[in-house]
Amino acid sequence: MKKGSVEMGRDGYLPLFETKVAKGRILFRCYAASMFVGIIFIWVYRVVHFPPAGAQVLRRWAWMGLFLSELLFSFYWFLTQLVRWSPIYRYTFKDRLSQRYEEVLPGIDIFVCTADPRIEPPIMVINTVLSVMAYNYPSQNLSVYLSDDGGSDLTFYALLEASRFSKHWLPFCRKFSIEPRSPAAYFSTTSEPPDSNPLMAQEWLSIKELYEEMKNRIETTTRLGRISEEIRKEDKGFLEWNSASTRHDHQSIVQIVIDGRDPKAVDSEGQPLPTLVYLSREKRPQYHHNFKAGAMNALIRVSSKISNGSIILNVDCDMYSNNSESVRDAVCFFMDEEKGHEIAYVQFPQCYDNLTRNDLYGNCFRVIIEVEFPGLDSNGGPFYIGTGCFHRRVALCGMKYDKECEREWKKENGRRGRESASVLEESCKVLASCTYEENSQWGKEMGVKYDCAVEDIITGFSIQCRGWRSVYVNPERKGFLGVAPTTLLQSLVQHKRWSEGHLQMFLSRHCPFIYGHKKVPLKLQLAYSIYNLWAAYSLAMLCYVAVPSLCLLGGISLFPEIWSLWVLPFAYVIIAKHAYSLGEFHWYGGTIQGWWNDQRIWMFRRTTSYFFGFLDTILRILGFAETTFAVTAKVCDEDVSQRYEQEIMEFGSPSPMFTISATLALLNLFSFVCGVKRVVVDIQIKPLESLALQIILCGVLVLINLPVYQGLFFRKDKGTMPTSVTYKSVSLALLACSLALY
Q1: Annotated catalytic residue: which of 359, 456, 598, 616?
Q2: Which of 83, 230, 241, 700 is the most buried (most CB within 10 A)?
Q3: Alpha helix stretches (DSSP H) within 408-471
């Protein structure tokens, strides 16, 4: 569809969505063209002024290292500009969907995944469950599945409590059209009942009281760490747990908490409730469980037996629905008469509701969400990012796209299991057993892929390679909101896993240029490479952060003299790149301080997370390491939360990542002081002319590392840099400086 298209669809129907090309891209393209010219001049300078054979060996190696780093930076920049060249934006027409298909809307199976009640509190999990149960969508067409990979009766108890509360919460949401529909999120943003509506105020107080009572019961039980005998007698489901059960060794547990087919499964107003199912797949120590991917595949199989919804939505347990219309937005794409049959999945952005004003740890991905993902959409389709994604079931299960594969949603809606709930529970246990996938295509050609830390990315790419399209939609009201990391280490560990998984993908048979050859557009292959090579870019960043400062100590010049014309391309590229970045960041709602924090955190990631991701990937290929999956904690201590809200960077725990960051920060501080001393104290003009750019570079790195110096030497709270890290980093920095000087 062309920009602003409202063309009539097949048989005279109007389309259910439109696609608009971004406006005002002339300025961006002029900027990109001028940047490209500047980059070419930098390359020319590096080649023409390459140190001769008689020059210092160290200078030749340093020069070569910087040149290779600049080539890698340039390649990364080129790929990002290619993706951003012509972004597109999608808009849906939900009113047309309701007018034409309200009676035949497809079934939606919603998967909520949790793994450990200790770091993913049950009260948070059930808030997510309640938010998706309350979608503005026919309840008889909704089925919600909670996958509990921790096999915890605490989580099951919380789900039982949520099922009872839903009988009051869903009518309240429906009656007053409230947003968001996560009780915790709603009551945190609406702390007082509305004065303008006495009827709503009365119900608000009643619902708030019911929620607080439920919350207290769940949190009290969670703190105790066990289910009382009195509670166990309330539901037969607790019989599935015995004294021998552990989170790593237990049988399959399937419990249909609410059977949507049961005429008695109604809310307080007599309206049907969505189906609600608890699943904990079998786990045995001798079987590899394949982390979240294995849980997703068990959910696909079990749901096919119980409800078999044509569309599957999966969300992380902390990613609650912030927009009750999101499900209709997604269905608009699948049911569009002209383009719907081509679409395998609809991806919403991953956003957070606990960001600080200036986004201390750069979790927002503001420009990626607003520019890069729309750019991916124009180049062949966005990635599947593991949460907030609506899938066509048959595509997720391995079906190849065929022009003749258009399907009638009406025919699929009747394919629900007809057995009783107890019979279904028993028959589904086999589908969630450890041995079910043996000698099958699950995890290979069916379902979510195994053996990679970014199983979601590989799965989405495989779907695209089977001929399907994907689309990206970012409505004004965000579809999903989650919990962002609240400490620096959490953020860095998360990015280590992502970068490691992306590099694994690039070095595996799923490499975009090999697996995607002649299957997806070259532009899309290149777009995947932006993220696949995150770990490799760490080498360039480490070189640029460390080598110029070490050479500054030794008086070795690596950049043009300050009065030389060759300084112009360096100055232009650096200033233009960061000025455009700042303008773009601000345009999409960021602050200047937020942009500065973003620059800092990207440097930290590239010198630590991505570097360790690179090392671990190489070690894994050589057989010295195995793939692991770390769940990011969703809870933290009160004092940590207070420092986060005050935007004070959290160090606290010792980590090799902090040792690298602190060592680099100190190295640049020592080098900057030495460079300034030569110019100011020793009054040496020659160093100022030949080393000015290196002094400026070190000065900028010192400014960006100010929170690190505060953590090392000035702060006294519990979030300061650990003493062991301080000693190590000071020693390493002094050793590096000594070697550079002598």
Answers
A1: 456
A2: 83
A3: 409-412, 421-431, 455-465
